Amino acid sequence: MAPRLAPMSNLSREDVAHVAMLARIQLEEHELDTLAGQLDQIVGWVGQVNEVAAADVPPMSHPLPLVNVTRPDEVRPSLSAEQALANAPDPEDGRFGVPRILDEE
């Protein structure tokens, strides 16, 4: 079945500009009209999925059952702090020193 295409967008240029601003995406003026139509199609397709979803189908995050494949935590011999920091370019108080990325103390 071919997807239904909306002949005219229900999303305005202002809607697209607002979503782009929230997503911190810079768009050119000519992109707003194109994306309005595309986003409107996506919203329509999501609506189609909602129409198909049956009440007797439980919500799921994955179509197949998942099994935990992690190993159990076991204490094993490893490097000491001094050995781990031996080649670190800027050790600081027994830790790896990294450049500050926030202006907070």
From TrEMBL:
Keyword flag Protein biosynthesis: yes
Gene3D superfamilies cross-referenced by the UniProt entry: Glu-tRNAGln amidotransferase C subunit, N-terminal domain (1.10.20.60)
Keyword Protein biosynthesis in record: yes
GO molecular function ontology, one term from the record: asparaginyl-tRNA synthase (glutamine-hydrolyzing) activity
Location of the region described as Disordered in the Swiss-Prot/TrEMBL record: 86-105
GO biological processes: glutaminyl-tRNAGln biosynthesis via transamidation; regulation of translational fidelity; translation
First-level EC class: ligase
Keywords from the named record: ATP-binding, Ligase, Nucleotide-binding, Protein biosynthesis, Transferase
Domain of life, source organism: Bacteria
EC nos: 6.3.5.-
Catalytic activity: L-aspartyl-tRNA(Asn) + L-glutamine + ATP + H2O = L-asparaginyl-tRNA(Asn) + L-glutamate + ADP + phosphate + 2 H(+); L-glutamyl-tRNA(Gln) + L-glutamine + ATP + H2O = L-glutaminyl-tRNA(Gln) + L-glutamate + ADP + phosphate + H(+)
HAMAP family: GatC
Family listed: Belongs to the GatC family.
Subunit (UniProt): Heterotrimer of A, B and C subunits.
Function: Allows the formation of correctly charged Asn-tRNA(Asn) or Gln-tRNA(Gln) through the transamidation of misacylated Asp-tRNA(Asn) or Glu-tRNA(Gln) in organisms which lack either or both of asparaginyl-tRNA or glutaminyl-tRNA synthetases. The reaction takes place in the presence of glutamine and ATP through an activated phospho-Asp-tRNA(Asn) or phospho-Glu-tRNA(Gln).
Protein name from the UniProt record: Aspartyl/glutamyl-tRNA(Asn/Gln) amidotransferase subunit C
Protein's organism: Ornithinimicrobium humiphilum
Organismal lineage: Bacteria, Bacillati, Actinomycetota, Actinomycetes, Micrococcales
Gene field: gatC
